[in-house]
Amino acid sequence: MTTVISLGGSIVAPDTVDIAFLKDFATLIKELLDADKERRFIFVVGGGGPARMWQQAYRAVRTALNAAVVDEAADWIGIMATRLNAQLVKAVMGAYCTDDVVIDPGVSVSFSGRVLLAAGWKPGFSSDYDAVLLAEQFKADAVINLSNIAQVYTDDPKKNPNAKPIERISWKEFRAMVGEEWSPGKNVPFDPVASRRADNIKLKVICTAGKDIPNLKKLLTGERFLGTEITG
């Protein structure tokens, strides 16, 4: 059994690295791996605070120079942040992770260990898209999207007090919410480009709060959990 997790950079490194979260997360994953020798995990790690910080710096400097801001350049900066975060998580997992960090999920990927780490690939989408491609390649039935929100809402709850949490939503409805276009640093529950691919291949995505370790354990052990399921 292979479980694919899109591990949001916002929980790995919201500003600086969240050491307490990584300790608790790694402890849970090791517990599950030791309990089931057939189980494997793929973690695709986002850029988080470092990506946003460096992208903002790039935009600020280019603007100050009266020069154009190029989305592709901003994307590459974010991609490099994902690779740094992924390398960190790989090191944390130690002997469970024997393969190099995957930076091109578009080719046949070697997975010889118990845990595989992946990061950003190329401009045009986020690491969510890489997670979908790896789920497709390794025949996972879902991608678990861990971020700093417990559920998808009908609107931004920070701006709209009437926004309601959603337990289940179709891809058609979800894609209408997040749009079709990607821009570097876009803040949505799941990348629009990844959403289109997941919809096309009928892949389920589960969105939930990554830092709620007891809830995550329920999800990973088949118990009732708090989150949002996006399906066809």
Task: Tell me briefly what this model is.
This protein is of the alpha/beta class.
What does this structure look like?
- The chain contains eight helices and nine strands.
- It is of the alpha/beta class.
- It has one domain: Acetylglutamate kinase-like (Carbamate kinase), CATH 3.40.1160.10.
- Helix 3 packs antiparallel against helix 4 and helix 5 packs parallel to helix 7.
- The longest helix has 23 residues.
- The mean pLDDT is 91.
- Considering DSSP H and I runs of 4 or more, what fraction of the residues is helical? 40-55%
Structural class: alpha/beta
What CATH calls the topology is Carbamate kinase
| Helical segment count | 8
Tell me the layout of helices and strands:
Layout: E1 2-7, H1 9-12, H2 19-35, E2 40-45, H3 48-64, H4 71-93, E3 115-118, H5 127-137, E4 142-147, E5 152-153, E6 165-166, E7 168-170, H6 171-178, H7 192-200, E8 204-209, H8 213-220, E9 228-231
Parallel strand pairs: 1-2, 1-4, 2-3, 4-8, 7-9
Antiparallel strand pairs: 5-6, 8-9
Helix pairs in contact: 3-4, 5-7, 6-7
Offer a few descriptive terms.
7-stranded mixed sheet; single chain; globular; 42% helix; alpha/beta; Carbamate kinase; 232 residues
